[in-house]
Amino acid sequence: TSITSAKIQVNGVHLHYQQTGEGSHAVLLLPGMLGSGQTDFGPQLKSMDKQLFTVVAWDPRGYGQSIPPSRDFPPDFFERDAKDAVDLMQALKFKKFSLLGWSDGGITALIAAAKYPTLIHKLVVWGANASVTQEDVRIYNGIRDVSKWSEKVKKPLEEMYGHEYFAKTCEAWVDGISRFAEKSDGNICQQLLPDIKCPTLIIHGEKDPLVPRAHAEYIHKHIKGSR
After folding, report:
1. At a CB cut-off of 8 Å and minimum separation 6, what does 225 contact?
2. Phi/psi class of residue 122: alpha, beta or left (left: φ > 0; alpha: ψ in -120 to 50)?
3. Confidence (pLDDT) at 192
4. 227: confidence class by pLDDT, cuts 50, 70, 90
5. CA distance linking residue 107 with residue 81, whole number of Å
6. Backbone torsions φ then ψ of 102, nearest 5 degrees
7. Domains by residue range for the chain, with CATH
8. What is the mean pLDDT of residues 100-114?
């Protein structure tokens, strides 16, 4: 039941991950913006059934302990994360695995499930969106300045990154994700949703302050057989 913490070289970077359990069903936990396995999935690493599951939580490049490199947001950053995530699991010798993704990690999981269908067993996403609207951009700009964040949300991230990296990376994220809204349909991965063939569960928080509910409904509508 112990949790191992290690780094492995994938696609030219050293990715940090935590692993626990010895079940036959491998599961990768994908954190949200600025998140890491530890900050976003402490309870899951501790409490998921270790007989049923082998649980891996990763820090995407530039987040958590997967620094260096510093985090950047090129136009394909979600695709890059999806490839890193899948290649990490393959480097760890998992032939097939499920994805549990939240927020940005949910978007990454949707792309991975669509692009690597033979590798993905099941998919659970929450707080995810497949496009960015002008309304979303307005919401994102509301969190651009981290000094306005609540102490509860801010503290663990400041402890992990230091104030400067945290503040700078949050601003870069707002700019990076807002770029999708410049396309006519605001598309991130809408065209990939019909390619997702694995059993999919979409969860959404009614009070999610960052992701309006219409996003979850859109994803559900466009992934055949999803719940």
Report:
1. 199, 200
2. beta
3. 98
4. very high
5. 10
6. -120, 135
7. 3-130+188-222 (3.40.50.1820)
8. 98
